[in-house]
What we know:
- By secondary structure, the chain is mainly α.
- Helix content is 84%, strand content 0%.
- It has one domain.
- The chain has helices spanning 2-36, 39-58, 63-71, 80-104, 106-114, 120-145, 149-173, 177-202, 210-244, 247-281, 288-312, 314-321, 334-350, 352-357, 362-385, 387-412, 419-436, 444-464, 470-490.
- Helix 5 (106-114) packs across helix 6 (120-145), helix 10 runs antiparallel to helix 11 (288-312) and helix 17 (419-436) packs antiparallel against helix 18 (444-464).
Amino acid sequence: MFDKVKLIFRNSIIYSLGNLSIALTGYLLIPIYTKHLALAEYGLLGILEVTFQIISNIFGFALYEAYNRWYFEKSSTGKQKSIFFTIVMFLIVIILVLNTVLFSLSERISLLLFDTSELSYVFRLMVISASLQILGRLPLTLMKLQQLAGFYAMSNIARLVSVLLFTIYFVVGLQRNLAGIYEAQIIGHIFYFLIILKYIAKNIEFRFESKILMDIWKYSYPLTLSAVIVMFLTVTDRYCLKFLANFEEIGIYSLGFKIASGIKLLIMQSLYLAISPVIYQMMDAPDNKRFYSKLMTYLGLIVMIFVLGASIFSREIIHIVARQESYYAAYIFIPILSLGVFFELLRDLSLTGINISKRTKIIPVIGFLVSIINLTVNLILIPLIGAMGSAIATLTSNILFFALIYIRAQKIYFIPYELKKIFILVFVSAGLYYFSELFTNFNTIERIMSKSFILFAFPFVLYVLKFYEEIELQSFREILTKMRINLYKSI
């Protein structure tokens, strides 16, 4: 099992380079957006971004998850290339239909979402960008399955560097604002497809697997429904704010949401890209359940370190990335939304038993229930406390979604997760965060040093509380010893 952990750690680092480029590109663009876009325009961008997420995540019909599952099936041996072709063709048909419908309705949708039909061109650009995102995700899934972490990172980095450069050119140089943002994204996607064209040609076989596609669809459509629910949970806050507040408040909230989402993008996705193939490879291993249990414990620890760091330094982060004082209030949303990201991780890991058992039909049912609660809480709290109501609703929904999925998954496929340790992570990090607030009024150097010490102390507090097992500590000592020996030899 330790070899699997080392493989996950190595691949996670490489995947994180690709995801780091995504995160860095997003963060490097924040100062540009907050300087060249008025707060209300940034709110419009927030609505465009969540609409982009809906299109790109839902209309992929969870075929990437299905490809993960079928790639290692014995019945798929020798058919991986033709299955790849089958899914690509299916996605192309979906994209053509999607673009035809949304283009014809673009002016009406623009009026509904943005209170003006003048943004219909921007909306169409966003639809094209989302469509390219849908199509481009399948080759990345294949790279992950073939454990080509280096190529995955390189192609992602190349695409995002081009997006960054063209965004700067269009937004700063040509002052095309929202339109320039999505024009740059389209160019970046085209550049990405040119890079991976040879790789796609090598891994595709022009044979349509209709029977396998039907089996994949039966597996995928419950996941698609659950994706709709998850996306509804993700975007309800912004849409509710649009109809119950104003675009300025959406702009402030969206900035806080983007910072918190960086944890998901950089850390969670990098880890999950590395572990998802291993999860299915371990299905029949004798120690698989202990492996799954430890994954939740230690991935939870890693993510919580970043959640705590983002929360403790939320003010400092916002002051660094924002270029107008009107954006500074966004820091108050980061701790709550970051904690919500942590419970998203727990929910996704709790799905392991459901996915292995192919009992995915329960997911959308639970998700629908949570979505209704999420919408209700938003509608109640936003009129009372504004955007903070959306943040509280998001956190509450993520906790509830995790709890219900966990309970159901354990009945289907029991895994001895270490919930006590998960609770320790949550309560210790919450206590350290509130302790760090005592240093808010210190001068900059003293405040940063004090908060850094608190963050550094987190894993040691866990040690005092006996979070780590002795065998795990021994393995860690052995790794440190090997690192010292290798360092001594290199010197």
